[in-house]
Amino acid sequence: MAQKPSIPKGTRDFSPLEMAKRNYIFNTIKEVFLLYGYQQIETPAMENLSTLMGKYGEEGDKLLFKMLNSGDYLKDAPADLLENRDFIHLIPKISEKGLRYDLTVPFARYVVMHRNDIQFPFKRYQIQPVWRADRPQKGRYREFYQCDADVVGSDSLLNEVELVSMIDEVFGRFGIRVVIKLNNRKILTGIAEVIGAPEKIIDITVAIDKMDKIGLDNVKCELLEKGLDQTAVDALEPLLTLSGTNDEKLSTLSRLLAGSETGKKGIEEMQFVLDHTAALDLKSEVELDVSLARGLNYYTGTILEVKALDVAMGSISGGGRYDNLTGVFGLEGVSGVGLSFGADRIYDVLNTLNLYPDDTLAGTRVLFINFGGQEARHSLKTVMKLRSCGVAAELYADEAKMKKQMAYANAKSIPFVAMIGENEVSTGTITLKNMATGDQENLTFDSMLEKLK
User: Fold this and answer.
1) Are 245 and 374 members of one domain?
2) Do residues 283 and 375 share a domain?
3) Which domain holds residue 438?
């Protein structure tokens, strides 16, 4: 018996109908990227592990898909590592490449490699798949697309303001109500300093980044397990549960972080971004959320995350500033800031809320029935003429029974069927049938073209 085919968990097939919806998402985001002056690049699906490892924190490194070396990948693997199942030290011996975890680190690598060809500030976008060895669940996949926009070579906080505006524009076009959450890693560093645990900043950010998933009590337990004392954890709690308007939160933070120069710098930057976005009259809510951490280690300034208001879903967009990322590849002093739209989660939200425009799924506009011989040749010429006028048209390839050809049109939701039989060939006309009403008309080409458009 033949083996039943399957696909890996956390991946999906997409039908023509689903791809029409996904292309609507990609095209909408791409239009906004271009509107804001971003240019497209692409990078390979696989990168050297030396490029990827150490950029996402310890937990991120565990989620990298590693690729075994070609051929006898065990030839350089020490027997003692195999025997002791020491995978941490074994992996570099048997795997040199991995699938990209995101698009930001490959972009940083791209900037360093092509620095002599780039005009700074450099604004780029990428729409490509990424892979994470995560546990599949609703809204979380092992293979998914990211739609990234980044600008490098500029320290200006106006870049952050433009990213917030771009988020508002994209979700406004989709018709999705969202809240744009903002924070600053310098504020989080300041918090770590004032609670007396500056050396625990990574543990703190990784833990509080899980607040929405596991709740405050579990975050506190995790921090205690990571070595923070009870006093520090108790001091952290009121900072993570601030309430009020953005200005009220900033005022409270200014008082609580008065002893941290880094914290005060973060508050100053956040004030700038909030003031400027408030002046843009955006449709989306913009909220300062001190519990927002974005667990990736490379963020150094503003961080942002987007949540849908009408669907229970994780983050559907996120990003931030990363002053030091290109430094690990030998290019110091190049600041960057960017965001990523989670196309797969946006797809799920749009499906849940049924927000696709009617013309999103538009495909073939008219199917020509194949009567064979001279009639088929006339039909093919008419099909080609319609296509040159921008009308999606098909000629049924086989000289099959009318019932079968009509069933094909129905299955593809083609709104019109055209027929050129012996009479139509002699009169130079086309019989056009509206599949929704059943009405038929005998038309000239120009009259048919006007109806189809």
Assistant:
1) no
2) no
3) 362-452
Answer yes or no: is 152 within a domain: yes
State the angle between helix axes of 201-208 and 185-194 in degrees (0 to 180), rounded to the nearest 10: 120
| 21/403 Cα distance (integer angstroms) | 30
Q: Which of 321, 353, 385 is the last residue of a domain?
A: 353
Q: Is residue 318 part of a domain?
A: yes
Tell whether 288 is covered by a domain: yes
Output the tens digit of pLDDT for each of the chain's 453 residues.
Answer: 788 999 999 999 999 889 999 999 999 999 999 999 999 999 999 999 999 988 887 788 889 999 887 888 787 777 777 766 766 767 777 778 999 999 988 999 999 999 999 999 999 999 999 999 988 887 688 999 999 999 999 999 999 999 999 999 999 999 999 999 999 999 989 988 888 877 777 777 777 777 777 777 787 887 888 778 888 777 777 777 788 999 999 999 999 899 899 999 999 999 999 999 999 999 999 999 988 887 666 788 999 999 999 998 888 999 999 887 788 888 888 989 999 998 988 998 999 999 998 777 778 999 999 999 999 999 999 999 999 999 999 999 999 999 999 999 999 989 999 999 999 999 999 999 999 999 999 999 999 999 998
Domain boundary among 304, 331, 353: 353
366 and 349 share a domain? Answer: no
Instruction: State the burial class of residue 233 (Cβ atoms within 10 Å of its Cβ: 0-12, 13-18, 19+).
Output: buried
Count of the separate structural domains present in the chain: 2
Residues present in the chain in total: 453
Rounded to whole angstroms, how far apart are CA atoms 346 and 176?
A: 9
